[in-house]
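Example 3.
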Amino acid sequence: MVRIKTSELKENMVVARPVVAHGRVLLAAGVAVTGSHLRILATWGVQEIMVEGDPHSDCSHASQPIDTQARKTIEHAIEKRFSKSNTDNEIIALLKNGALRMEIEQSIQGTPDSSGE
Amino acid sequence: MNSRDFSGIEQMLGHVDQLPTLPAVYKRLQQMLTDPKVSAREVGAVIEQDQALAAKLLKVVNSSYYSFPRQVTTISHSVVILGFNEIKHMALSVSLLKMFGNARAGTLFDQSGFWKHSLGVAVCAGAIGRKAGPAKCPSHEEAFVAGLLHDIGKIIEDQFLHDDFVLVLREQKKQDVRLIEAEKRILKNTHQDFGAFLAHKWRLPAILESTIGFHHDPLRVQDSESEFAMTSIIHCANIIARALAIGTGGDPYVPRLEHQCWEFLDLGTDDLEPIVDESAGVFNDMAKLLLEG
């Protein structure tokens, strides 16, 4: 995970930490950046954000978009895993974001998870 | 400790004589530690009678869980560094994994995933205990063994009420409910009850009986602050291990968090990330040592 200037941000880079401006979450962790996100960040004057991997490295994972289907599969699994929990609780919400981010990272890096499910 | 009526459980199990017995080395250590004159060398000698246990214990002491700057080469040295009670808890953890950890293949209940989950909760409980500090968690080793044992009731269900437990697992899948809900419907009791019963039979410390018996209902622990603190640690550790999908607890769901537990441990939102990072890092190391080795 690295800090990057929004001027260097490119589409499909994956947000590592939620982007918050004036108390509002603009982008959640785990989101792949789109052209519309770039415009929103510029509108709100966001200067820097945290993204996955090292975008300046040739072997960066951050510049590799995660396959849309793989991403949907992960999002669905996380939604199901947290479906019986109190996601309005701040700790559970943070855990959910973190789990999504970790599993997207693992998917990009090809690391199998330890789950027996 | 909140008193619990085990008569229904005893009736269900009937053949209680067949229940597993407390690891002998733990029993011996419990007896020894009532003697204030006992030495580290004597405690080390008891553990070293079981060479496999001693070797594994040394590996754990030298693992990333402790991250001691220098290698610890003898059990008696480990006793001096960790303390009598702590080495007793770790000896119990390693003995239990030796006793129960061999996964049975071909059963509906994934025992390999179960022990991964239990170890994940143990490691996470240690990390939470360190963050919470000595006032809330005087012994990380006790937190570790409490995490390892928290779901032991599921092993009792699988081994001694096997046919009913198969119905529980089918009900969980068919109705897509949490395992504890399926247990209530089929067995009228939960793994918390069976686990607390075993802890009671084994005469484990009250704090362990409480954490096993109430980790899904921590607010029911009202009589003792230390028991509530440890039950809170295991309640939170279970949620984190499930959120990270470390192993399986019998269903794929993250339980609801009782926020009072998190607050009671004086933890803030900023504490979550270091706890998760430490747990994920140490788990892989400990799983290699204790589940694969």
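Residues 122 and 147 of chain B are 4 Å apart (CA to CA). The domain at 7-292 of chain B is CATH 1.10.3210.10 (Hypothetical protein af1432).
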